[in-house]
Amino acid sequence: GRRTALPRHQTLRAMLDWSYALLCASEHLVFDRLAIFVGPFSLEAASQILADGHIDSVSAAAALDELAAKGLVAVDHSDAMATYRLLEMTRAYAREKLAERGEAEAHALAFRHAAYFTGLLDHLGTTPREIYERCSRLASQLGNIRSALEWSYGPQGDPGLALPLAAASAPLFLHFSLMVECRAWCSRATELLE
Fold first, then answer.
1. Among positive and negative, which fits the CA dihedral 62, 68, 71, 73?
2. Strand, coil or helix: what is 31?
3. pTM for this prediction
4. pLDDT tens, 5-57?
5. Helices (H) and strands (E) in the chain — how many of each?
């Protein structure tokens, strides 16, 4: 920005610091935790994943709505159900804030994220038509599913979630002809079983 501009308009970081300082405690918590999402996410996903002993799902949804009203979260109304998204620079800032909260909170959040997407993938259906329709709707969630898989197979991950998540995500990867990726996750699952 220009040197004569207000300090909050001179750099993106200064603007994010200024905006973050204006948030209340529950909005701070929700904003920090939104860093877990890669790409778009639904209100349902946010309210279930972000909620814990510190904030309930209704308060998390209300804080998400406030963050969207303040321009920190982008809202897409193009589908029947609105989706939310953090811009990549905003997400990077939120990741820093989440890291400041400690590893225990980040671990619990990643666990809830992986568990949510495991549950979502478990309900793809049984008939080819059901699987096709539900997989098509989950196209925008591939980033979140990959992130959940990476965490669950990582050093801080949970093997109890890794196996069911890999199994549940296989039909989705096959639907989008992501054969190499499907094979890689299934191979890691069989290695874990051995």
1. positive
2. helix
3. 0.89
4. 666 656 788 889 999 999 999 999 999 999 999 999 999 999 999 999 999 99
5. 10, 3
